[in-house]
Amino acid sequence: MRSMWMLVAAFMFACMGVLVKLSATHFSSTELVFYRSTLFGVLDHLSDPSLLPFISAHNIGVFTAGVVLLV
Q: Would you kindly state where each structural domain of the chain is located, as residue ranges?
């Protein structure tokens, strides 16, 4: 069963890469980092609402680091 989760994770990671490549023509790098961080923060919160403070602080840190590294 572990290998099935690994295959699903690899497929989802590949889908994310394709979506980033396709959306790069319409959005700037900063916008892509913001949208990706926001999306994963919402998905994490939906999976376990009790982790909201940790996930919010984590996503703010990831977003900030991404923006700083892009500038």
A: 2-70
